[in-house]
């Protein structure tokens, strides 16, 4: 109870404070009480808040293109083709992966103070999970706390899997068939989510300590688990991304229902790092649009890992970087034109 209460105190960055001040004045003082609450775990004075990662100021450095350009997502596809879905476990390996995700979800909810207005929130895979599981008193600050904590560990599985497959390829003197690239790209994408939200909030030392412990445990657990059963690990990440899609869907629902007024104010703009990374159009730079982009990414990770979990881990090529003989037939790709929430079955692509 102590952790759930204190871990939600996360100070806002300078840019967000300026935006919040505009909202407060325009709403006649709305949100004043929440901003004046004591900050339980913060190492920065409120008057001295700054951007967590300031832009480098030097004449010798220019901005360069990222190694992995983010694919362009059609706006309508993000609204209509991305939704919560669950893949039913087919064997013991799948059930182990799902059980571990539920355990991780329980611990994360406690750590980030995430609550629901129902006695028993619907679990992953339950019917009507979106309609029956509503967040309770989730403010902008609490959502940011949850986003920062989740994204701080979300980039671990892809990096661990890519590292082990890289070493395995060199040790066995065999090709990896394209898996490493997609796994590294996934990890990088999750890190960009984290950097985006860190432009809006700066964690205190207690949150940093939680992240340090969570990452240490998660990295070593994934390392050992991937050595034993890569397929189970990919299924685990697939189920984990299902929960991520649900989380962002609930946040978007809160925004659309007017429960997060600080994020719906016309003057609120998303961080520049997000605009550059997703190439967000001028008229699509609201918080809701940003969450649509992030949710689409999580849905893509869900599809990728469920698909990789269906393949032969040693011999099958990565279908997301492959060229297909008949391009007119729907097939896996980096975009969301033919997204499959529960993954592609092996017989459909091999």
Task: Give structural notes.
- This protein has 350 residues and is mainly α.
- It has a domain at 75-79 and 138-318 and 329-348: Alternative oxidase (Ferritin), CATH 1.20.1260.140.
- The chain is built from 15 helices and no strands.
- The chain has helices spanning 2-6, 14-26, 32-35, 75-80, 92-112, 129-132, 140-154, 156-172, 179-198, 205-228, 230-256, 261-264, 272-278, 287-309, 346-349.
- State the share of residues found in helices, binned by percent: 55-70%
Low-confidence stretches: 1-9, 20-52
Radius of gyration: 21 Å
CATH H-tier superfamily of the domain at 75-79 and 138-318 and 329-348: Alternative oxidase
What is the CATH class of the domain at 75-79 and 138-318 and 329-348? Answer: Mainly Alpha
Shape assignment: globular
Binding site for Fe cation 2: 190, 241, 298, 301
Transmembrane segments: 143-164, 205-228
GO molecular function: alternative oxidase activity; metal ion binding
Protein name: Alternative oxidase
């Amino acid at each position: 109870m102590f952790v759930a209460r204190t871990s939600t105190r996360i100070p806002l960055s300078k840019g967000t404070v300026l935006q919040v001040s505009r909202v407060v004045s325009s709403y006649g003082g709305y949100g004043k009480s929440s901003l004046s609450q004591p900050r339980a775990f913060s190492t920065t004075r409120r008057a001295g808040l700054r951007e967590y990662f300031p832009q480098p100021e030097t004449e010798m450095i220019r901005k360069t293109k990222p190694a992995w350009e983010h694919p362009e997502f059609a706006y309508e596809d993000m609204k209509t083709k991305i939704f919560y879905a669950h893949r039913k476990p087919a064997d013991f390996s799948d059930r182990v992966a799902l059980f571990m995700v539920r355990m991780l979800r329980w611990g994360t909810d406690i750590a980030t103070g995430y609550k629901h207005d129902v006695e028993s929130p619907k679990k992953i895979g339950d019917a009507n999970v979106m309609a029956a599981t509503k967040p309770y008193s989730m403010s902008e600050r609490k959502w940011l706390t949850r986003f920062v904590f989740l994204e701080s560990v979300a980039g671990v599985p892809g990096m661990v899997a890519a590292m082990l497959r890289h070493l395995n390829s060199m040790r066995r003197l065999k090709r990896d068939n394209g898996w490493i690239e997609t796994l590294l790209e996934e990890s990088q994408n999750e890190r960009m989510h984290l950097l985006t939200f860190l432009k809006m909030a700066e964690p205190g030392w207690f949150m940093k300590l939680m992240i340090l412990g969570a990452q240490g445990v998660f990295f070593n657990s994934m390392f050992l688990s991937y050595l034993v059963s890569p397929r189970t690990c990919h299924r685990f990440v697939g189920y984990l991304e299902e929960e991520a899609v649900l989380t962002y869907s609930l946040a978007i629902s809160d925004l659309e229902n007017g429960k997060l007024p600080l994020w719906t104010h016309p003057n609120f703009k998303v961080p520049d790092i997000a605009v550059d990374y997703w190439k967000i159009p001028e008229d699509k730079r609201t918080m809701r649009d940003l969450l649509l982009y992030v949710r689409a990414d999580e849905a893509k990770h869900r599809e990728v890992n469920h698909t990789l979990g269906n393949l032969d881990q040693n011999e099958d090529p990565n279908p997301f970087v492959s060229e297909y003989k008949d391009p007119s037939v729907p097939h896996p790709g980096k975009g969301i034109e033919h997204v499959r929430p529960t993954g592609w079955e092996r017989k459909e692509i091999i």
